[in-house]
Amino acid sequence: MKLCLGCMEEIQDNVTICPYCGYKEDTPVDEAYYLSGGTLLAQRYIVGKVLGYGGFGITYIGWDVLLKRKVAIKEYFPSDFVTRGVESTKITIYSGDAYTQFQAGLTRFISEAKSLAQFNHTDGIVHIYDCIQENGTGYIIMEFLNGQTIKEILKFKNKYSYEEAEAVILHVLDALEEVHKTGIIHRDIAPDNLFITKDGEIKLIDFGAARYAASSKSKSLSVILKPGYAPEEQYRAHGEQGPWTDVYGVGATFYRMITGVRPEEAIERLIDGHIQSPSSLGIDIPLQKETALMKSLSVKKEGRFQTVAEFKEALLGTADENSSATGIEKPGPPAYPSGKWLVLGASVFLAVTVFAFLLGRNAPVQETSLPGNQDNKSVVESTPMLNIQEPSGSARIPVATPSETARTSEVFPTSDLVQIPETSPTPEPTPMPAISSAPEPTIIPEISLTPAPTPTPEASPAPEPTPTPEASSTPAPTTNPKEYPTPEPTTK
Fold first, then answer.
1. What pLDDT score does 150 carry?
2. CA 24 to CA 9: how far, in whole Å?
3. Alpha helices per DSSP H over 146-242
4. Which of 71, 245, 320, 437 could form a disulfide with 459 if both were Cys (CB 3.0 to 4.6 A apart)?
């Protein structure tokens, strides 16, 4: 039995084409600087075919001879600084500044791999098994993932539904939150670094890619800083990077997953910062979540969430109102107006009140029908003065009509509406026309503020005087234009 160098499955010795993956034995490498299949590292790890290549490293499928399991082997190989001859395992470092840059990047490569090894029990992060230095460079031995990257999936699916994409992104944010606590920043979050296994696990791979490139003069940056997914600070030699850098990468990946469109390159959005919202592209997404997504894509780091925890809280709707996750500060206590504003407000109110009063006095009086008035005739005359039949020499008393009384009472107390001097003569009763049965006076339902008596068709043995409710200590005379005998005045 032997191992297939394409998938590390055991096959028969006489088989040249793997029945599992179709890999053909003795297939030459695509690039001369790739390690040849079958190379042994640290007397333990067998190197297989190339799985991927980036600006700073090459990833191979491998086999752990000791533990009998598949592994992934990442070799530090920044092509700007090193090369390798055909059929050789040792690398050749270019002279001058390239050597310094290479050594600095190699140190970071090994150091960060060791730091990531502490997260082997954290979901969402590829597990690190070993770190070795050989052939003049470094290697990270990590778990082998069987599945596809988001980038590969999007080639066939084009885009995810919002709910599907959010489930992936929340897992990524959880993983990043743990890693950021140790000061490690991914710096290269994009669809090709999010991996979905066949078991449905979501893994974040290729940490620290931009750091290993080492120099802004390196051409590798143009490969590692993927257009649309790298924030503007990564394009500058001294751009300040931090958790907010990964926030941008996650937001850009999220945007691509749900819209099917890669965000415009951050460096191109420096002038106006414009980017089309998912909803404007016809994507069904809740407003709160779209707002959070768009904030994560702010060109300047100050406009973004400063931590992945804030981004996650905004997506889930659990952000504190004072937190920058909402993008809106909670208002403080209400500011009360100063004294001068109170005086001004009172003056305006008084002016409006007087104007309304004067306008009401000049407005035409509407006719009103009283309940119980059988012939439904109007009981309000068009003139505000009411002539009451009184003996010769009696005084005429001005009386406000019901509608005018209603308007006036809104501004002034009832007692100011009608003032009758105590010395005014009391009008004598006016004879009532004969009626088959004398009606009993009753209380008229209150019109505005001043009630007045009115007759009803109900008969009674004899008319009895009915007290009239006071309106500012003076009884209000009836406003019925019909002439009826007025009952004996009630002594107060």
1. 97
2. 13
3. 150-157, 162-180, 209-212, 221-224
4. 437
pLDDT tens figures, 432-451: 544 444 445 444 444 444 44
* Phi, then psi, of 180 in degrees rounded to 5: -65, -25
Chain Cα centroid distance, residue 471: 59
**In angstroms, rounded to a whole number, what is the distance separating the alpha carbons of residues 102 and 80?**
9
422 token code pair? 């105590």
Distance set, CA 10 to CA 2, 14, 275 (Å): 5, 12, 51
- In tens, the pLDDT along 117-140 reads 989 888 899 999 999 999 999 999
Q: Tell me whether residue 246 is one of the annotated catalytic residues.
A: no
The catalytic position among 13, 26, 30, 188 is 188
Tell me which amino acid residue 83 is.
T
In angstroms, the CA 34 to CA 36 distance is 6
Among 35-44, 234-243, 292-301, 470-479, the least confident range: 470-479
Contact 289, 162 (CB under 8 A): yes
Tokens of 254: 């999220």
Concatenated DSSP letters for 302-348? Answer: GGS-SSHHHHHHHHHT---TTSTTTSSPPP-SPPPP-HHHHHHHHHH
Q: What is the mean pLDDT of the chain?
A: 76
Is 475 in a helix, a strand, or coil? strand
